[in-house]
Structure formats: C-alpha cells, structure tokens
C-alpha cells in the first residue's frame, strides 16, 4: 500500500506545505501562534486551577494530544471550547501530514498522539493504510456523521467537506455559459482558465477523482485540454486565482468554495472587493457532480487517552461545534443539523461526486504523472 504512493506521496506531501501555505494566508500564522503559546493569563489560570488533586481520580491531567496538519484558526477555537466544556486539555502538535504519519509510525506504541487530523481523503486513507489508526467506536459519531463521510472501518471520520468548483467573472461570464469541468477544456475558454500549480494537492485530488469517475484516458484528455486553455502559467494559491480574474488575467478559475466565503468576510478590503466580483458555479450537476474533498480525524492506534479522544471527536462532529466550524471556515459541515452560514445557504444544495475518498490517494501518483505529462506547471 505504501508503495502505491512511493515518490508520488513524497510529492503529495511536499505539496501539503504549499497547500497549507495557501490556506494560511491571513490566518495561518495566527493559528500557529495561538496554538503554540497561550497567553500568559491563560497559562496562569490553567496552572492555578488544574492542580493534580483536582484532576482525574488518578491525579493525572486530562488531555487529548492531536497531531494536526490542518492549520485553521477555527480548529484551535473549537479545541479551546471543548476544554472549557469538559476540562480536558487539547494539545495541538502541528506538521505536514507526511511528517505526522511518519512520526506516528516511528513512535509506534510509545506515541503520545491520540488523534490525527488532516485535510484530504486520500491522505486520511494513507494514514489508515500505514496502520497508525484504529476504529472509532461511538454511536454518537455514527449518528452525527453520515456513513459516506466516514472511513469504511471507522478509522477516521469527516469533520468538514469542501467543493472544488468553477468561479467566474460576474461582469464577463454568464453562468449559462458554464456547465462542466470537461467543458473548461473546450475552445470557448481558450486563454481564459486560471488555476494554481499541479503541486497543489487540491488539483491532484481533483484529477484523481476524474481518473476514478471517467477513466484514465478521459482524465488525460482533460488535463491536456485544460493546460491548453490556461490564461497564464499557474501561480499563487486559490485566492490568487480570484484576484487574477478581477485583474482581467482570465475569466474563470478552479477554486475551493471556502476561499470565497473567507475572502467575502476578510479583514482585507481588497479581498472582499475581489470576492464580490466573482460568481460561484457548481459544475457537473447533470453528470458526476462537483468535486468534493474531506477533512477528517483519525483515532491513533496506540492512543493513551482513548476515552477523551473519542469525546473530542464526538464534540467536533456535534451540531453546535459543526455550526461554529462552518461559520469560521466556510467549509461544509458533515453534520446535517449544523446551521450553515448564509452564503452557503444561498449556494443551495448541490450534487457532489460520490466516490470512495480513498480513491483520491490511490490515483494520486497517476494524477501527478498526467499533469507532468501535460506540462501543467
Ligand atoms: Fe485551503
């Protein structure tokens, strides 16, 4: 299983750094800062109230140690809220998904990690295949997260989903002109398509989904077609594609939905202005559906705080926490009871791809090869 990834997976994980750098624009540093160093007053409070005698019966502080490759402010806020509700402290240990999986393998039984959190279904499955996870047994989780957003063996469960869709210049493109990802490779979009580099795991998983749904030949033809329609050599993250549309470099871009929400509610006026000038289009509604990817949490095989870890998973997937998450990140909740932000409600329900998220990882190497072959930089 590991071999399937080989150098491809190495490449994938290098991309994770880029992906996360993309995610982090404007909030990544804060997230790291918040997690790494609680304010002195918080520290003081914690020390003052959590004396050993007041902790659990065994006198130990109640904790959950989370190895996370997700660098979002909202995650840290949710962990803090969990601590306030339960008294269980959450320690975030950050890294790229590859680093963290390698670390879990290396540490084995001596690992202090209880949970593994990351974006991308392929990566979650990579952790499972590497034997660092175990089944999550919780009726609450099973009822809060639909089966299609959980691993088949419950080694991981989804905490949020995101769609990778088409955004367009509202002043130059009518939504009626748009239909499918496949159509972006047609003559009408020559020199008008914007998308980030092939080193982005987001693009690799998008193409992996096409390999799974349409076959390798069709995926290869699409890759060549889209590259031929590029408005420019790929540069920047997803937000930069939106900015390039507004700057007139191209008319349409492939982008993750949550960036549009984050930009519309950004502290930077420029980002808000850009987001207001682009429309969101969910492609392939009459065919295979819009590309969906997932963020999830896995229970580490040698977790020493399993009960607390499961409590945290139950909390993260509960309706109140899911409401906070979607309102903070503009990802889609996995719990149908969560209250979505107005923007997501406006977008309405959409048809999403239905495929085993594990396939995104299984086809990763092939996807990278196709992109290299087509000259997608
Ligand atoms: Fe992102």
Protein traits:
single chain; D-Maltodextrin-Binding Protein, domain 2; 2 domains; 17 helices; 10 strands; globular; disordered N terminus; binds fe (iii) ion
Topology overview:
Elements: H1 2-24, H2 28-36, H3 40-49, E1 63-68, H4 73-86, E2 89-94, H5 97-107, E3 115-119, H6 121-129, E4 133-134, H7 139-144, E5 156-169, E6 193-194, H8 201-214, H9 216-228, H10 238-246, E7 252-256, H11 257-264, H12 269-276, E8 278-281, E9 291-300, H13 306-316, H14 319-329, E10 332-333, H15 342-347, H16 358-362, H17 364-374
Parallel strand pairs: 1-2, 1-3, 6-7
Antiparallel strand pairs: 3-9, 4-9, 5-7, 5-8, 5-9, 5-10
Helix pairs in contact: 1-17, 2-4, 4-14, 8-9, 8-17, 9-17, 11-12
The structure holds fe (iii) ion (FE).
Strand count: 10
Low-confidence stretches: 1-56
Radius of gyration, taken over Cα atoms and rounded to an integer in Å: 21 Å
Total discrete domains: 2
How much of the sequence lies in strands comes to: 5-15%
Helix content: 40-55%
Tally of alpha and pi helices: 17
Question: CATH superfamily of the largest domain, called what?
Answer: Periplasmic binding protein-like II
Any idea of the CATH class of the largest domain? Alpha Beta
Overall mean pLDDT score?
88
Shape: globular
Structural class based on helices, strands and sheet pairing? alpha/beta
Bound compounds, each kind once, are: fe (iii) ion
CATH topology of the largest domain: D-Maltodextrin-Binding Protein, domain 2
What is the N-to-C order of secondary-structure elements (H for helix, E for strand)?
HHHEHEHEHEHEEHHHEHHEEHHEHHH
């Amino acid at each position: 299983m590991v071999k399937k990834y080989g150098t491809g997976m190495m490449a994938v994980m290098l991309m994770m750094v880029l992906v996360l750098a993309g995610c982090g624009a404007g909030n990544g540093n804060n997230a790291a800062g918040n997690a790494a160093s609680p304010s002195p007053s918080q520290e003081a409070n914690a020390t003052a109230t959590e004396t050993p005698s007041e902790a659990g019966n065994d006198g130990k502080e109640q904790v959950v140690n989370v190895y996370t490759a997700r660098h979002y402010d909202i995650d840290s806020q949710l962990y803090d809220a969990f601590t306030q509700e339960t008294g269980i402290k959450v320690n975030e240990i950050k890294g790229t998904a590859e680093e963290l999986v390698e670390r879990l393998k290396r540490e084995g039984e001596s690992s202090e990690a209880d949970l593994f959190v990351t974006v991308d279904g392929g990566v979650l499955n990579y952790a499972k295949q590497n034997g660092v996870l175990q089944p999550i047994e919780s009726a609450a989780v099973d009822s809060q997260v639909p089966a299609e957003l959980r691993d088949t063996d419950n080694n991981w469960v989804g905490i949020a989903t995101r769609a990778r869709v088409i955004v367009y210049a509202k002043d130059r493109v009518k939504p009626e002109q748009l239909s499918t990802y496949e159509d972006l490779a047609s003559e009408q979009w020559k020199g008008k398509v914007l998308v980030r580099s092939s080193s982005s795991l987001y693009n690799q998983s998008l193409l992996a989904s096409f390999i799974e749904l349409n076959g390798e030949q069709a995926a290869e033809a699409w890759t060549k077609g889209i590259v031929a329609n590029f408005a420019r050599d790929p540069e920047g993250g997803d937000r930069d594609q939106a900015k390039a549309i507004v700057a007139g470099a191209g008319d349409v871009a492939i982008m993750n939905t949550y960036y549009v929400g984050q930009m519309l509610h950004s502290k930077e006026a420029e980002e808000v202005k850009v987001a207001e000038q682009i429309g969101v289009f969910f492609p392939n509604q009459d065919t295979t559906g819009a590309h969906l990817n997932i963020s999830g949490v896995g229970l580490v095989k040698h977790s020493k705080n399993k009960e607390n870890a499961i409590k945290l998973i139950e909390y993260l997937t509960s309706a109140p926490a899911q409401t906070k998450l979607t309102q903070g990140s503009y990802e889609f909740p996995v719990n149908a009871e969560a209250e979505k932000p107005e923007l997501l409600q406006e977008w309405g329900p959409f048809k999403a791809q239905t495929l085993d998220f594990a396939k995104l990882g299984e086809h990763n190497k092939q996807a990278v090869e196709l992109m290299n072959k087509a000259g997608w930089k």
